[in-house]
UniProtKB/TrEMBL annotation:
Gene that produces this protein: tauB
RNA-binding in keyword set: no
Matching Gene3D superfamilies: P-loop containing nucleotide triphosphate hydrolases
GO molecular function: ATP binding; ATP hydrolysis activity
Signal peptide span: none
Protein name, per record: Taurine ABC transporter ATP-binding subunit
EC number: 3.6.3.36
PROSITE patterns: ABC_TRANSPORTER_1, ABC_TRANSPORTER_2
The keyword Transport belongs to this UniProt entry's keyword annotation: yes
Domain ABC transporter: 4-232
Domain of life: Bacteria
UniProt record similarity statement: Belongs to the ABC transporter superfamily.
Alphabetically ordered keywords of this record: ATP-binding, Cell inner membrane, Cell membrane, Hydrolase, Membrane, Nucleotide-binding, Translocase, Transport
Length: 256
């Protein structure tokens, strides 16, 4: 079982001061860890450390004990703004990682088509990404990240800019993809309900500099992966109990 470990990491910047303060967090294969916290507390910086886009001032980031010194094929990241290439069509955006690995055009086009079908975009291979809706663009971003076959998928508020109906559909899709991929997922969100539905573990951060103030183990995502509807789960008294605990952690324990 693979493990992504942030071990007592700390980082700061001259313009902001300390951002993350000796924080430890582990994500294993099959985990869906969701991080919550106040705006500006360091959530995205934490994800950048995990991705290798930033280096900690103290502590270490490792994958299976090997130091993370930069981005790597074992980790893929999905951004809120989808970060697609506007000059390329859907298929070429999705197949980018395979192209960089030297995979033949025929193979990468076939793999991209299969992954697009998994995210509900069968037949959209040749469409320009500039013609897609926000939800469709995020599906393309997910397909691109998953086609790289990472051991860890890092998601920086990937659903934050979507409307409510699209966001609900994307939550279910992400859970399905997580359940089938076997990879570890680490996601940032501002939504307590989203964390409850999707996480196997929700982690609450303090105001900056970020420290972990609470951790809540959850199991609703596994029920959704098993076929239960999110709306039915929301009616479960256990969901409301978990929601009250997580809300208390976010509102009471993150007060500056």
């Amino acid at each position: 079982m693979a493990e992504l470990l942030l071990d007592r990491v700390a980082i700061g910047f001259p313009e902001t001061g300390p951002v993350v303060d000796r924080l430890s967090l582990a994500v294993a294969s099959g985990d869906f860890v969701v991080v919550l916290g106040p705006s500006g507390c360091g959530k995205s910086t934490l994800l950048r450390l995990a991705a290798g886009f930033a280096r900690p001032d103290e502590g270490a980031v490792t994958v299976d004990g090997a130091p993370v010194t930069g981005p790597g094929a074992d980790r893929a990241m999905v951004f809120q703004d989808d970060a697609l290439f506007p000059w390329a069509d859907v298929r070429d955006n999705v197949a980018l990682a395979l192209r960089l690995r030297g995979v033949s055009r025929r193979e990468r086009h076939a793999a991209a088509a299969a992954m697009l079908a998994r995210v509900g975009l069968a037949g959209a291979e040749r469409r320009p990404v500039t013609a897609l809706s926000g939800g469709m663009r995020q599906r393309v971003g997910l397909a691109r990240a998953l086609l790289a076959d990472p051991r860890f998928l890092l998601l920086d508020e990937p659903l934050g800019a979507l409307d409510a109906l699209t966001r609900e559909a994307m939550q279910t899709l992400l859970i399905d993809l997580w359940a089938k991929a076997g990879a570890g997922f680490l996601m940032i969100t501002h939504s307590v309900d989203e964390a409850l539905l999707m996480a196997t573990r929700a982690v609450v951060l303090s105001p900056r500099p970020a420290r972990i103030v609470d951790t809540v183990e959850l199991g609703f995502s596994r029920r959704i992966a098993g076929g239960e509807s999110p709306r039915a789960i929301r009616r479960d008294p256990a969901f409301e109990e978990a929601r009250e605990r997580l809300l208390a952690a976010v509102t009471e324990r993150t007060a500056a």
